[in-house]
Amino acid sequence: MDIKKVVIVGGGTAGWLAANHLGKALFNTENVSVTLIESPDIPTIGVGEGTVPAIKKSLQSFGISESEFIAQCDVTFKQSIKFSNWLDQDNHGKGNFFHHLFDMPSPMGEDLTPLWLSKQGHDYASCVSPQFTACEALKAPKKITTPEYAGSLGYAYHLNAAKFAKLLAKNGREKFHVEHVIANVSEVKLNDSGAVSSLVTDTHGELKFDLYIDCTGFESLIIDKALKVPFVDKSKQLLVDRALVVQVPTDVNESIPPFTLATAHQAGWIWDIALPNRRGVGFVYSTKYMDDKTAIKKLDKYLGGGLSDFNYRFLPMKVGYREKFWHQNCICLGLAQGFLEPLEATSILLTDFAAGYIANRFPKSVAKMEDIQTQFNQVMKYAWERVVEFIKLHYCLSDRTDSQFWIDNRDPKTIPDELARKLSLWETYVPNREDFFSKFEVFDLENYLYVLYGMKYKTQVDALTDEQMSLANKQSLHLAEIGKQLTEELPEHRELLNKIKEHGLQSI
């Protein structure tokens, strides 16, 4: 039987990313339709979303103008995640920080990590990339004359998730003819073999499709409630389980950081994402180590008081992922697939990755589905496990001792085996490309370098020869000069955003 009718259940960022990926891939396929069913009663969860650079490729492939995207979705540029106080204040100073930059480290050829290891007197990112200086100066990654989706420095975005979903919805409907149905799904019917046969809705009756994509968020209406696919719990490795979130208005003349600020506290960390008119702030913590009242007091202190003047809410976080991501004729994406806390913006990243993978390997018939399904499940499990390891890296490398939360995060029983193996290897060898052998690495060599050595990991390496030291010093100093030059040439972040909204960028 051919697969002719595809349905995406659930809107939001996940649903409409999937709709655009599939709509584009299947647009010229005869007699194949893509429908998205969206409830009128379920709001978007996002409170200020962060992305990673890979999202640019998807947006460009959908034919979305970067200028339109920036103007309509309250977008700001994101060049880094700045981690503050993730290390012990007595050992590294109050307000210690490091950058996980989006530009490649050591771009001039020589790996400058051994040079930094021989000195360790300054920030790793400032040694290996000119982007550090531009970020600290709050500069934009490009000029108004730079074409869309190009930049002098690597970047992603911060955005208003609700407005982003609306832009994706408009694009999917108009460019790729995705049918948009507003309805609540009241029942999922299964056939005798256990596959989904139809959906019962409140406004459109019973609807039948060939392939069902579950984007219903934490509710996981199809993959969990109907198909009973088990959940793989990762709470023993990643200890945070709740977020207290709030949106705080900002002055339209205030400087906008071109990075996500991630500030560690006694039992977790705080995200702080600046959009043009507001900040999305989330206090992420573990209820085992901190109660809700203390969390409220801590967030109020972080904001300088006045938390009670805003609408704040608690978000429970069930940390883990589905045992299968594709079961029978149902694929889950977004929060229905899993959630591993907001650190490093992994939610949109994994959704975009998975939706693109399905679009590129879309099964034309039920007979072809099994092979693709098996491979998809293997790839996504590999990707999720690598993300677990990368997030855990931030916690287990911390030398903070001010609470049991940080001490327990260094307990070997909480560290994934593969991460422990790599950390043991990296005690005597600087990571290299061969340590990340799969094309499905979600976080690669450069990501690990910035976090490992941003957190002062002590790899013991042989001393550099005089010739090696001279060459490395020369390249590092040259990168510093490039950083100064970029800081002089690039516009202030808010200034560029205002110009883009007024004039737009050059289309490619």
From TrEMBL:
InterPro entries named in the record: FAD/NAD-bd_sf, Flavin-dep_Halogenase_NPB, Flavin_halogenase, Trp_halogen
Origin superkingdom: Bacteria
Stretches assigned to coiled coil: none
A Pfam cross-reference name: Trp_halogenase
Name the UniProt record assigns to this protein: Tryptophan 7-halogenase
Taxonomic source organism: Shewanella eurypsychrophilus
Taxonomic lineage of the native organism: Bacteria, Pseudomonadati, Pseudomonadota, Gammaproteobacteria, Alteromonadales
